[in-house]
């Protein structure tokens, strides 16, 4: 995303704005300030982003959206609080909030930061001369924030890893899957539940929203038939290498400028036990991504702030945005079965983090089921072979502890 | 009790409503017949109605005039203090 000059950020396209229904609204009604020629006087009391108060700025017309903005994770950043508070204790929450005020709060998106301007976290600036766009720009709004993981995965920015098939073949943008209801917090009207984390509630989007016929059992895909729909999340087979970050430190310079230092990041694909297993996400195995957390994440702001660090894994449920029909995992059964390389086995987790990751560590890669001779993809089964579905599968997640 | 104009109006409305309910049902409305193209008179009438619609005018002209003038904005722009990028690694 090319940076905008200071003056470009506030250059409006008056013709376009006046063709829009919002053109009926005087500038000063939303932005404050004064309608005078003197620059200083005009900007006195200016409100840069009126939609930070969605109810006041947008609510008189957008009555079906604005009242729910406070439930939107994009706006309230509740997902951060949820995981950080769980890793901490209540007496440390104010310290976390202080740290967040320097390092996280710029990332929260108002209505305007998706529909009028670039997000503040990337410097702001009008996207299209202050026209109001119903659908956010993928490059200048969505991935302006969701850059290092989603954008790089989706667009194939990592060398040797192709872009997501939904982009390559269908030219789909973020909003083709992620609907306004998901973004606006309006799901609350349907569910009555306020999401506290992005993986709360039903999967949205879900692969089967579009691919229901493809993934149904008995539709001729032997891999799908063999694994069913509740053992593996779709991404276990159809996503590939993604970025993992470890050891993040939040700090401030001597001048009080907040910054972070990420010690380590690597591309990898890792299958773990599903730490969020429930009726909405019943899978036993899911890809897991190492998130940039660390016991000393908030050390600059206080001692032992994440005192309950082991409450959550550092390898977390992941839905990588680099979906492919064929991946290294789909090359053969043995790509995964019996191959510890793809699994989060104990040896891949440092001793001091094993307790935190107990919910996701897999003791060993699942072996091929016994008597497994007939392989999906073979035209005919070898003589005397048996259907793998008849053989009792060995699942390491069923193995007794210590095995 | 003294009848206020509001109560009086309500009583009057009720009486009219009762009278209307007692009347014979109105005959069925004649179906509208869609004819061919509008006549010049009809088109003129529509044009007259459209002309009456409010047009969007720049309401805050000073704001608009300045913020649509790229040259003026460049002259008035104040470069922000450049802050050295200290963060390391993917955000």
Major sheet size, sense and barrel closure of chain B:
none
Radius of gyration of chain B from CA coordinates? 33 Å
**What structural category do the secondary elements of chain B indicate?**
mainly alpha
By DSSP (H or I, 4+ residues per run), the number of helices of chain A equals 17
**Rg of chain A, nearest Å:** 25 Å
Q: Hey, roughly how much beta strand do the residues of chain A contain?
A: 5-15%
The shape of chain A, in one word, is globular
Strand order of the largest sheet of chain A: 3-4-5
Low-confidence stretches of chain B: none
Count of individual helical segments of chain B:
4
Q: Helix and strand succession of chain A?
A: HHHHHHHHHHHHHHHHHEEEEE
Which percent range fits the helix content of chain A?
10-25%
* Helix share bin of chain B: 40-55%
Mean model confidence by pLDDT of chain B: 77
The multimeric state of the shown protein is heterodimer
Average pLDDT of chain A, rounded to a whole number, is: 90
Largest interface, C-beta within 8 A = A-B, 40 and 29 residues
* End-to-end separation of chain A: 50 Å
User: What shape does the CA trace of chain B take?
Assistant: elongated
Gap between N and C termini of chain B: 76 Å
């Amino acid at each position: 995303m090319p940076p905008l000059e200071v003056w470009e950020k506030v250059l409006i396209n008056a013709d376009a704005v006046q063709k829009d229904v919002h053109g009926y609204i005087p500038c000063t009604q939303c932005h404050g300030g004064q309608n005078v020629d003197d620059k200083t006087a005009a900007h006195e009391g200016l409100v840069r982003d009126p939609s930070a108060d969605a109810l006041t700025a947008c609510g008189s017309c957008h009555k079906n959206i604005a009242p729910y903005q406070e439930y939107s994770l994009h706006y309230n950043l509740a997902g951060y609080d949820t995981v950080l508070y769980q890793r901490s204790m209540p007496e440390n929450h104010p310290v976390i909030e202080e740290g967040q005020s320097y390092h996280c709060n710029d990332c929260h998106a108002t209505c305007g930061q998706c529909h009028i301007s670039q997000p503040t976290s990337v410097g702001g600036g009008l996207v299209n001369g202050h026209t109001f766009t119903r659908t956010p720009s993928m490059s200048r709004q969505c991935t302006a924030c969701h850059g290092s993981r989603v954008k790089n995965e989706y667009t194939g920015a990592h060398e040797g890893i192709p872009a997501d098939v939904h982009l390559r073949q269908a030219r789909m943008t973020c909003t083709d899957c992620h609907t306004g209801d998901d973004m606006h917090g309006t799901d609350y009207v349907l569910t009555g539940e306020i999401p506290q984390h992005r993986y709360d509630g039903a999967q949205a989007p879900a692969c089967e929203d579009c691919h229901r016929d493809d993934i149904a059992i008995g539709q001729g895909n032997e891999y799908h038939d063999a694994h069913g729909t509740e053992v593996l999340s779709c991404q276990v087979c159809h996503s590939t290498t993604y970025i993992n970050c470890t050891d993040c430190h939040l700090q401030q310079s001597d001048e009080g400028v907040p910054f972070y230092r990420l010690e380590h990041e690597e591309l990898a694909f890792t299958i773990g036990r599903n730490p969020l297993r429930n009726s909405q996400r019943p899978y036993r195995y899911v890809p897991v991504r190492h998130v940039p957390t660390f016991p000393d994440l908030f050390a600059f702001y206080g001692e032992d702030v994440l005192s309950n660090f082991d409450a959550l894994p550092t390898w977390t449920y992941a839905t990588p945005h680099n979906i492919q029909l064929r991946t290294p995992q789909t090359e053969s059964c043995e790509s995964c079965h019996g191959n510890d390389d793809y699994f989060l086995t104990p040896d891949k987790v440092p001793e001091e983090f094993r307790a935190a990751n107990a919910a996701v560590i897999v003791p060993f890669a699942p072996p091929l089921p016994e008597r497994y001779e007939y392989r999906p993809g073979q035209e005919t089964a070898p003589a005397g072979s048996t259907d793998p579905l008849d053989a009792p599968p060995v699942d390491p997640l069923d193995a007794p502890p210590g095995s | 009790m003294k009848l206020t104009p509001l109560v009086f109006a309500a009583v009057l409305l009720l009486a009219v409503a009762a009278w209307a309910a007692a009347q014979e049902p109105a005959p069925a409305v004649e179906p509208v017949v869609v004819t061919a193209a509008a006549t010049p008179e009809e088109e003129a009438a529509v044009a007259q109605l459209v002309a009456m619609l409010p047009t969007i005018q720049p309401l805050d002209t000073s704001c608009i005039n300045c913020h649509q003038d790229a040259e003026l904005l460049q002259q008035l722009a104040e470069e922000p203090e450049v802050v050295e990028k200290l963060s390391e690694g993917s955000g």
